[in-house]
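Lay summary. Proteins are chains of building blocks that fold into shapes, and those shapes determine what they do. In this project we predict the shape from the chain. Here is one chain we studied, written as its sequence of building blocks.
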Amino acid sequence: MAAPILQVKDLKTQFFTDDGVVKAVNGVSFDLYPGETLGIVGESGCGKSVTALSILRLVQEPGRIVNGQILFKGDDLLELSNEEMRELRGKDIAMIFQDPLSSLNPVLKVGFQVEEAMFAHDRVNKKNALSRAIELLKQVRIPAASSRVKDYPHQFSGGMRQRVMIAMGLANKPSILIADEPTTALDVTVQAQILELLRDLNRDTRTAIIMITHNMGVVAGLCQRVIVMYAGQIVEEGPVHQIFHNPQHPYTWSLLRSIPRLDSDRHDRLLSIEGLPPDLISPPRGCKFNPRCQFRIDRCLREDPPLLDVGPDQRAACWVTMDRALKHKEPAVGG
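And here is the predicted shape, written in a compact code that computers can read:
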């Protein structure tokens, strides 16, 4: 197997507030390989977006990265100067944000905004930049791209604006594309089109993609591997097909039981995850999921479980794991 293009090691990002220290990302480690699509999923506030912002060193005060390494092609990004990071952002690692309307400048033509991404990192003349912008808009399937480069963001639909954002992200042929909830504000049909586009781009350009989402369906449709986060920590990771068919952490199991599936009996009831995510200033002792877990044992209340192998290429942080839990305790419907 090829060497990882990105290695995140024991990353800790904290926010220092008047109420206390928020441990938003608490010891996250993972690898990303060239050409891979990796999903990071979890409820709002679990730390997935802060992890992405930490990779690009875009965490704003009062947040700070307090520990860890972020190795891109062997170089630790946390040791680079601000100038070196500015050169890397958008060129080697690009990011697509959740709301394209707030990310695009409303008074500048979309063609110019795509060109700007090139001017920031490459010595390219205006004519070549315009040609490349048109080519990129065609690549992300915007009709009549040669004329639409002259349009403003408000003249595009939500789905088309998101395509412009993807074009901007691809302008400098990055090695990694981070997509932070890129389909959240879009209707289901447009979501499917954006996912198909990202899948095709990954296949054609071999750009590695990190997909940040709360939608397990998005992960199933796009990703090869998935990381499940809860309370700033990774609770399970592994190949998508394996996680979906044999989840080992109760939180992953609960997430999958809360969404409809085409391969399940139509009479099966969907289960909700009762309770709320923990306060990251004063999280519960032991496993952070234990107040909401119907399979918890005494050890879960005392000790935080490490991330251990539970199957081929699959790891989970749980003292019980679902294989053992379901043999000994049938969960109550609804938790």
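What the prediction tells us: The CA atoms of residues 68 and 243 lie 27 Å apart.
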